Protein backbone atom coordinates (compact mmCIF):
# COMPACT_ATOMS: atom_id res chain seq x y z
CA UNK A 1 0.00 0.00 0.00
CA UNK A 2 1.59 3.19 -1.09
CA UNK A 3 -1.14 5.47 -2.32
CA UNK A 4 -0.17 8.36 -0.05
CA UNK A 5 2.42 10.60 -1.63
CA UNK A 6 4.82 11.17 1.22
CA UNK A 7 8.24 11.94 -0.12
CA UNK A 8 10.85 10.86 2.38
CA UNK A 9 13.21 13.65 1.30
CA UNK A 10 16.32 11.60 1.92
CA UNK A 11 18.05 8.74 0.16
CA UNK A 12 20.12 7.00 2.80
CA UNK A 13 18.63 4.98 5.60
CA UNK A 14 19.97 3.29 8.68
CA UNK A 15 23.55 3.23 9.91
CA UNK A 16 26.15 1.09 8.09
CA UNK A 17 27.51 0.21 11.55
CA UNK A 18 24.34 -1.83 12.04
CA UNK A 19 24.90 -4.02 8.98
CA UNK A 20 23.98 -7.59 9.81
CA UNK A 21 21.64 -6.60 12.65
CA UNK A 22 18.21 -8.12 12.34
CA UNK A 23 15.53 -8.48 14.99
CA UNK A 24 14.23 -11.93 15.81
CA UNK A 25 11.06 -13.24 14.22
CA UNK A 26 9.41 -12.95 17.63
CA UNK A 27 10.36 -9.30 18.02
CA UNK A 28 9.08 -8.55 14.50
CA UNK A 29 5.78 -10.26 15.20
CA UNK A 30 5.40 -8.36 18.46
CA UNK A 31 5.97 -5.09 16.62
CA UNK A 32 3.47 -6.08 13.96
CA UNK A 33 0.85 -7.14 16.49
CA UNK A 34 1.16 -3.94 18.46
CA UNK A 35 1.02 -1.65 15.41
CA UNK A 36 -1.37 -3.47 13.06
CA UNK A 37 -4.93 -4.35 14.00
CA UNK A 38 -6.19 -4.84 10.44
CA UNK A 39 -5.96 -8.58 9.76
CA UNK A 40 -6.10 -8.14 6.01
CA UNK A 41 -3.13 -5.81 6.09
CA UNK A 42 -1.27 -8.25 8.33
CA UNK A 43 -1.93 -11.06 5.86
CA UNK A 44 -0.64 -8.84 3.04
CA UNK A 45 2.64 -8.28 4.88
CA UNK A 46 2.96 -11.97 5.75
CA UNK A 47 2.42 -12.90 2.13
CA UNK A 48 5.01 -10.43 0.86
CA UNK A 49 7.44 -11.64 3.55
CA UNK A 50 6.92 -15.23 2.44
CA UNK A 51 7.58 -14.32 -1.20
CA UNK A 52 10.70 -12.35 -0.31
CA UNK A 53 12.17 -15.23 1.69
CA UNK A 54 11.29 -17.76 -1.01
CA UNK A 55 12.98 -15.63 -3.66
CA UNK A 56 16.11 -15.15 -1.52
CA UNK A 57 16.30 -18.91 -0.91
CA UNK A 58 15.26 -20.40 -4.24
CA UNK A 59 16.36 -17.87 -6.79
CA UNK A 60 19.39 -16.32 -5.12
CA UNK A 61 20.60 -19.09 -2.84
CA UNK A 62 21.22 -16.64 0.01
CA UNK A 63 22.18 -17.68 3.54
CA UNK A 64 19.60 -18.23 6.29
CA UNK A 65 20.61 -14.89 7.83
CA UNK A 66 20.06 -13.07 4.55
CA UNK A 67 16.77 -14.86 3.94
CA UNK A 68 15.65 -13.63 7.34
CA UNK A 69 16.50 -10.03 6.43
CA UNK A 70 14.51 -10.35 3.20
CA UNK A 71 11.63 -11.78 5.23
CA UNK A 72 11.73 -8.86 7.69
CA UNK A 73 11.67 -6.27 4.89
CA UNK A 74 8.50 -7.89 3.55
CA UNK A 75 6.91 -8.39 6.97
CA UNK A 76 7.37 -4.80 8.13
CA UNK A 77 7.09 -2.76 4.92
CA UNK A 78 3.54 -1.51 5.63
CA UNK A 79 3.65 -1.78 9.44
CA UNK A 80 2.77 1.90 9.93
CA UNK A 81 -0.06 1.96 7.37
CA UNK A 82 -2.82 0.97 9.80
CA UNK A 83 -2.31 3.69 12.42
CA UNK A 84 -0.36 6.38 10.57
CA UNK A 85 -1.23 6.19 6.86
CA UNK A 86 -0.23 9.82 6.32
CA UNK A 87 3.25 9.02 7.66
CA UNK A 88 3.70 5.80 5.66
CA UNK A 89 6.54 4.66 5.48
CA UNK A 90 8.51 7.22 7.48
CA UNK A 91 7.27 5.94 10.81
CA UNK A 92 8.44 2.34 10.38
CA UNK A 93 11.77 3.54 8.96
CA UNK A 94 12.40 5.65 12.07
CA UNK A 95 11.40 2.76 14.31
CA UNK A 96 13.81 0.38 12.58
CA UNK A 97 16.58 2.98 12.73
CA UNK A 98 15.96 3.39 16.46
CA UNK A 99 16.15 -0.40 16.84
CA UNK A 100 19.51 -0.33 15.01
CA UNK A 101 18.41 -2.63 12.19
CA UNK A 102 20.47 -3.48 9.10
CA UNK A 103 20.33 -0.54 6.67
CA UNK A 104 19.57 -2.95 3.80
CA UNK A 105 16.20 -3.78 5.38
CA UNK A 106 15.36 -0.11 5.97
CA UNK A 107 16.46 0.89 2.47
CA UNK A 108 14.22 -1.79 0.94
CA UNK A 109 11.22 -0.53 2.89
CA UNK A 110 11.99 3.08 1.94
CA UNK A 111 12.07 2.23 -1.77
CA UNK A 112 8.93 0.09 -2.06
CA UNK A 113 7.07 2.89 -3.84
CA UNK A 114 9.52 5.05 -5.78
CA UNK A 115 6.79 7.20 -7.30
CA UNK A 116 5.45 8.01 -3.81
CA UNK A 117 8.42 8.00 -1.47
CA UNK A 118 10.99 9.40 -3.89
CA UNK A 119 13.54 6.65 -3.18
CA UNK A 120 14.95 4.54 -6.00
CA UNK A 121 15.12 0.75 -5.53
CA UNK A 122 18.80 -0.16 -5.91
CA UNK A 123 19.61 -3.55 -4.39
CA UNK A 124 18.02 -6.86 -5.35
CA UNK A 125 16.10 -6.76 -2.05
CA UNK A 126 14.73 -3.29 -2.85
CA UNK A 127 13.67 -4.31 -6.33
CA UNK A 128 11.98 -7.53 -5.29
CA UNK A 129 10.03 -5.87 -2.48
CA UNK A 130 8.74 -3.33 -4.99
CA UNK A 131 8.02 -6.10 -7.51
CA UNK A 132 6.10 -8.32 -5.08
CA UNK A 133 4.17 -5.67 -3.16
CA UNK A 134 1.31 -4.79 -5.52
CA UNK A 135 1.38 -8.07 -7.41
CA UNK A 136 0.96 -10.05 -4.21
CA UNK A 137 -2.10 -8.08 -3.14
CA UNK A 138 -3.55 -8.21 -6.62
CA UNK A 139 -3.11 -11.97 -6.96
CA UNK A 140 -4.66 -12.47 -3.55
CA UNK A 141 -7.68 -10.37 -4.53
CA UNK A 142 -8.02 -12.56 -7.62
CA UNK A 143 -7.87 -15.73 -5.49
CA UNK A 144 -10.70 -14.42 -3.32
CA UNK A 145 -13.03 -14.05 -6.31
CA UNK A 146 -12.25 -17.54 -7.62
CA UNK A 147 -14.40 -20.29 -6.06
CA UNK A 148 -11.34 -22.57 -6.12
CA UNK A 149 -8.99 -19.92 -4.68
CA UNK A 150 -5.39 -20.48 -5.72
CA UNK A 151 -6.05 -23.99 -6.96
CA UNK A 152 -5.62 -24.20 -10.74
CA UNK A 153 -4.80 -20.48 -10.98
CA UNK A 154 -2.92 -19.62 -14.16
CA UNK A 155 -0.68 -16.72 -15.17
CA UNK A 156 -3.01 -15.85 -18.03
CA UNK A 157 -5.94 -15.48 -15.59
CA UNK A 158 -3.98 -12.94 -13.53
CA UNK A 159 -2.91 -11.09 -16.68
CA UNK A 160 -6.50 -10.94 -17.89
CA UNK A 161 -7.55 -9.32 -14.60
CA UNK A 162 -4.67 -6.84 -14.84
CA UNK A 163 -6.12 -5.68 -18.15
CA UNK A 164 -9.55 -5.27 -16.57
CA UNK A 165 -9.21 -1.81 -15.03
CA UNK A 166 -12.36 -2.21 -12.97
CA UNK A 167 -10.93 -5.19 -11.05
CA UNK A 168 -8.97 -4.18 -7.92
CA UNK A 169 -8.95 -0.70 -9.40
CA UNK A 170 -6.79 0.71 -6.57
CA UNK A 171 -3.85 -1.46 -7.64
CA UNK A 172 -1.53 0.55 -9.86
CA UNK A 173 -0.85 -1.33 -13.10
CA UNK A 174 1.87 1.22 -13.84
CA UNK A 175 3.71 0.30 -10.62
CA UNK A 176 3.46 -3.42 -11.43
CA UNK A 177 4.90 -2.90 -14.93
CA UNK A 178 7.57 -0.50 -13.66
CA UNK A 179 8.64 -2.87 -10.88
CA UNK A 180 8.94 -5.82 -13.26
CA UNK A 181 11.06 -3.72 -15.60
CA UNK A 182 13.34 -2.47 -12.81
CA UNK A 183 13.81 -6.00 -11.48
CA UNK A 184 14.48 -7.14 -15.08
CA UNK A 185 12.17 -10.10 -14.58
CA UNK A 186 9.34 -10.76 -17.02
CA UNK A 187 5.93 -10.12 -15.51
CA UNK A 188 4.80 -13.68 -16.36
CA UNK A 189 7.67 -15.10 -14.32
CA UNK A 190 6.84 -12.92 -11.34
CA UNK A 191 3.16 -13.84 -11.50
CA UNK A 192 3.98 -17.56 -11.65
CA UNK A 193 6.25 -17.22 -8.62
CA UNK A 194 3.55 -15.39 -6.68
CA UNK A 195 0.88 -17.96 -7.57
CA UNK A 196 3.13 -20.89 -6.62
CA UNK A 197 4.29 -19.49 -3.30
CA UNK A 198 1.30 -17.54 -2.17
CA UNK A 199 -0.90 -20.61 -2.35
CA UNK A 200 1.01 -21.90 0.74
CA UNK A 201 0.10 -18.83 2.79
CA UNK A 202 -3.67 -19.23 2.88
FE1 LIG B 1 3.27 0.55 1.25
FE1 LIG C 1 2.39 -3.37 0.69
TrEMBL record:
Keywords: Hydrolase
MF (Gene Ontology): hydrolase activity
Pfam families: HD
The keyword Hydrolase appears for this protein: yes
Domain HD: 44-132
SUPFAM superfamilies: HD-domain/PDEase-like (SSF109604)
Keyword set includes RNA-binding: no
Name this polypeptide is given: Putative hydrolase (HD superfamily)
Lineage, top ranks: Bacteria, Pseudomonadati, Bacteroidota, Cytophagia, Cytophagales
